[in-house]
Specification:
This protein is α+β, with helices and mostly antiparallel strands. The chain contains 6 helices and 10 strands, in the order E-E-E-H-E-H-H-H-E-H-H-E-E-E-E-E. The strands form 3 sheets. The chain has a 5-stranded mixed beta sheet with strand order 3-2-1-4-5. Strands 6-8-9 form a 3-stranded antiparallel beta sheet, with no helix packed on it.
């Protein structure tokens, strides 16, 4: 008779950040299994928010030494959507090169994350940050311990990015799904709120692109519309 082994069910809570962004960074991780809990944190000399969010998940998954069913909880839409919406898998299939020839930001960490996910059965869950979620708040505190620690280490991947930044620089933001220049989160299409036409105004933008992560706004040339004397759209 075949000896069936139990596949452990583990919860992984993560958070990461940088102060400023880019700046000193850190991440916090909580792993829970059958009521047992382990906590971790690490600080970095120079990095970004998104790299710390990614590194937190990678670090937690790499601590799991046997195949497991893992529920990941993160307040980073960049990380959660990157996996759940298939963006990272698409980037990997394209050899980490965007359509305009630029390299994908943080591709070293995305590649590492995809590799470790393949070893487990992993689901990602987004939680809203700073709303009293117990584990998320604790991970935030752990990340701050990392940021303020004296034994911060170098983020070699970010240093390599700085040395080769020209290969990562993006072109104009033109359509939904293009990456935000500030944080690399895919932008979404938004329509402006109604407003009055200003004196001598000759055009308006029918829509714009918004980064859901850092809230950066990008005006799109194709959305530009000329006003006529009779226009009262806003």
């Amino acid at each position: 008779m075949k000896d069936w082994k139990e596949i452990p069910e583990i919860e992984l809570f993560t958070d990461g950040g940088a102060e400023p962004n880019p700046g000193k960074g850190g991440f916090g991780v909580i792993l829970t299994y059958k009521g047992r809990k382990k906590e971790f944190f690490q600080g970095y000399e120079l990095t970004t928010n998104n790299r710390m969010e990614l590194m937190a998940v990678i670090f937690g998954l790499e601590r799991i030494k046997t195949k497991a069913v893992v529920q990941v909880y993160s307040d980073s839409k960049y990380v959660v959507d990157g996996i759940e919406k298939g963006w990272a898998a698409n980037w990997e299939r394209a050899n980490w090169i965007r359509k305009k020839g630029n390299l994908v930001l943080n591709m070293d960490l995305w590649e590492r994350l995809l590799d470790v996910i393949d070893k487990h059965e992993v689901s990602f869950n987004w939680v809203k940050g700073h709303t009293g979620h117990i584990e998320n708040e604790r991970c935030d505190a752990l990340a701050n311990e990392g940021i303020n620690s004296e034994n911060k280490i170098n983020d070699e991947g970010y240093l390599e990015y700085l040395e080769n930044i020209e290969y990562y620089q993006e072109q104009k933001i033109e359509k939904e799904g293009d990456s935000c220049r500030k944080c690399d989160t895919p932008v979404v299409k938004k329509s402006p709120k109604k407003r009055k036409i200003k004196p001598n105004q000759t055009y308006y933008f029918e829509y714009y692109m918004l980064c859901p992560n850092c809230k950066a706004m990008y005006m799109v040339e194709e959305a530009k519309r000329n006003l006529s004397d009779n226009d009262t759209l806003f």
